[in-house]
## 1
Amino acid sequence: MTTSTCDSEGRLKLYSALQMMQDCSEMWIDSEPGVKDCFARQNMAQLLASRQVEVIRVPSYQETLTVTTSVYGMKPMFGFRNTFIYDAEGNPCYKTWSMGAFVDKATGKLKRVDDETIASMTLETQLEMDYKDRRIILPKEGGVAGAPIPVMRADIDYNKHVNNANYIRMAMELLPVDFEVRGLRVEYRVAAKLGDVLTPVVYTDGNQVLVALSIGHEVSAIIDFYR
């Protein structure tokens, strides 16, 4: 861990932990030549559809961390993986599972991975954690609207839309200052792009805060924080 990944108290920022996880997941493709070749031939990409994070312990400045990722399930249009962050003693600090969607880069629509590619993949054992539903249901009332959030150039990644970790960074700014995140779920629905304006609505219920980020009348992402 370096200074750029730490908060004002010298602890790993959740945003930084998520960046580590997504970088590790992207590098996984290089370890699966069949998948890499399929994506290149068919102009495909893997986009995150949902993620759940369990925060076991927040590491501190200069700790040595190891990030691992493994795919435990594969369907023609979706993949399922665990990504964990461990400390120097091999104890988990963050446990996550996520679902990725396979899409056509040109159209942005779901696209099937062929059976041969799926058969070539290395599937590993699903790791132990408290698995929750990936779908997040918003309350019908009780939300408080926040100030609009314009999408800036720094929010965009190479897929030409808001990077998945940046949604969570935006949403965390709306949490109470003393809210210690012990876990979260996020569901990505409509990709926000440069020039869009996200309208946040916050729902608070005891130890849970839901943040919905919308583009006009369409929900772009929902983040469920709990402590």
## 2
Amino acid sequence: MVYEYLPFLEPFHSLFVQLGRILMITVPLLIGVAYLTLFERKVIASMQLRKGPNVVGPFGLLQPFADGLKLFLKEVIIPTKSSKLVFLLAPMITFMLALLGWAVIPIHEDFVLANINVGILYIFAISSLGVYGIIMAGWASNSKYAFLGAIRSAAQMVSYEVSIGLVIITVLLCVGSLNLREVVLAQQEHGWFVASGLFPMFVIFFISALAETNRHPFDLPEAEAELVAGYNVEYSSMTFALFFLGEYANMILMSAIASVLFLGGWLPPVEHVMLSWVPGVVWFLLKIVVMLYVFVWARATLPRYRYDQLMRLGWKVFLPISLFWVVLTAGYLKYNGLLP
């Protein structure tokens, strides 16, 4: 109808459709990041028998907007001897990478921004690039505390990316495809991976995701006791807020990846007539919320690891187990003629 009156816009139809899809993913994601902060504070308050935010708006529902406005109105302080361009680029890169990962996440069978055949490799590449924003922030701040925090964070993220990579290899061996949509459809055909021999991989993936996103009990880059606040110690106002939002956006992204790889994506928990009327998007969102609840639950209950314990867990426990499971899975599939 629009093209009848504005025919010059018709060649851009596919571009408009793609932009609409990007907005349909990005806007709910940004709102979800804002309310994840409220969700976390409410859940932890409930576990500690207190109320949590309940003053700004009904039931505290406007608290995320009040926090955002407060950070927006504060002054952006740039250290005198810092590398100003790199200092400002670092939080932008961290936040943008958390959004770029959603390009290949299949929200529904017919709704994915880019249904590419190497979706798993794309996700792994994007998650690996996140370390650059942190290194840039620590180096550009021209502060020993920030630089030491960045080095610790980089070592932690790289260590647990190895385990995540081996977990992903196990999944793609079982599926035979790098396409994330095909991963979900394979679970529909052969049953959920959690109920099969990939459950240990699911546990390793989730714990590694906690370390990858610098979440409790692996939030050692924060290190307020010895490093003041880690790599972001010199940041304030919206530059700090972008790091903060990037962390929570990464939590949602990791929960979505776990849902796609192990929990059936948009599929219902069990095949039943009573559950078939619920839209697949609802199941996908519910699985993400459950995963996020476990993220928050871990923060409220577990003590923080020492750094040597963190590294020992990654290199001496998760790496051998995940490597063994890759070999075991490949051997089983080859023995049964499921691998060429």
## 3
Amino acid sequence: MMECTGKKNGYIQKNFQQPVKRYCQTLDLKDDPDLIQEYVKRHSEVHSWPEIREGIRSVGILEMEIYHIGTRLFMIVETPMDFEWDSAFEKLAKLPRQSEWEEYMSIFQQADANATSSEKWKLMERIFYLYE
């Protein structure tokens, strides 16, 4: 497992043996410090559901990271170059326990309890990078 050094020292990134592409998404949590603390806990290695991590990998996602500040969540998803977002997330929504997880997570999120992951999380548009 990779060591995370923290927000002030940076986070070590995986090196893949292939070109990858990145998707970025955002979602807001309910403005309740106790709910936010529990949401963070439920995404820890110890408390996250193994079936959910396995399902994410099974649809072709190489890495997924979630960051938060206040009520704002930011997700980075890294995939192979041939990854197809819509078909992968349609497949993910049908995997065992995925709808149960999404319903459970809706307790914490500003989102519909019946929404799929791709309906709750909003894809972001990149507006800057260090142009070459």
## 4
Amino acid sequence: MVAYGMVGASISAVTFVGVPGMVLTEQMTYLQTCLGFILGYVAVAFVLMPLYYRSGQASIYALLEDRLDSGARRAASAVFLVAKMGSAAVRFYVAVLIVHQLLPQRLGLPFAATALCMALSIWLYTRRGGIHTLVRTDVVLTTCMLLALVLIIYRVTRALDLTLCQAAAAVSHSPLSRVFVFDDWLSPQCFVKQFLSGIFIVVVMTGLDQDMMQKNLTCRSLRQAQLDLCSYGLAFVPVNALFLALGVLLTMLAARWGMPLPARGDELLPLFAATGRLGTAVLWLFAVGVVSASMSSADSALTALTTTYCVDLRQRPDDVRLRRRAHLTLTLLFAAVVTAVEALRSPSVVSTIYTLVGYAYGPLLGLFAYALLRPRHRSPRAPLAAYMFIAIAAPAACGLLTIAAQTLCHYRFGYELLLLNGTLTYAMLALLPARVGHGRSPRGSKG
């Protein structure tokens, strides 16, 4: 149940809407990143997961306190709160936008009202049940999303007068079906860049993410959790291949009907589905798929944000009143951030998320790498402010390097920005003054 539900939690409305449109600019090269995801999940299952189970903590960031000190744990928690709030809001925004266009906009309601109502609906069904409610509801939501995807593909092939086998052959012969790029090392779609980035994207967005790990830690044993991660990682490739194939089929349908392709890739699927061009059935299937995917992603994000705030930052895991207040406050803040995203629309929501991951999750990658790889005799001696400075300075340096590389060398960073950010964070942590001696700092130390 956890593995199946996590498919929907990771895919979200962004994948449902954005991935089919990626074929307009990147063909099917996104599958290179998805292949890297498989190795990433294996690494998380057999390297990080045993450490989390051994610690016996509800929060994965407790590992940083065991290995370093409480300052590192709190800094990682703060980074996660900012990064997860931003990435989850961008994902949820797509669903809110589509639902808003279906009914509230016609009634004259503002976008903020739709965002608030959808966020509060999540708060209602997660308020009492917590993570166990999410495991069950995500199974239902993932099923609705995948059924909607398959049925939309079927309706598109019918509109093209093709059988499913003929549609598969047409996709494979399309110039948009290119998957591998080996001949252009400067391209962001180069195989080596995307494959390696896929590995580390999974490490940070799943292995270092309280949201995803909290669900895996509900498994009864380490072996079950590892099986969960590996099976889920393998499922990611065929599911994304279906989304990309749908994008290719939609470009064929646009050519057949004499329709111009949209300037934004995120508008390709809505151009056909949300406008009713493929019939009312597809319109409602599209709405069900997007809302199911977005709810599955957002509900787990809000639950994980509440856990991190109460357990890691405030360190009051048994305070029920604090947990309920934090849950409601984070829900309202989440709705506000979704509304802010509306004013900052990007040509590709998928690319926006991975750019955000590169900047925001890089410090988490560096912190965990340093905690696991540092020499045993070297324990940092630094206050919380030093960790927070590094967590801000590393992404800022990445931003400057990105501008300099594009200006001076005409080199454009892709998903490998995450690796650069993590490396800079690790290097800065290595410069912290060391506490001489063997062993780790005591649990609960103030750093």
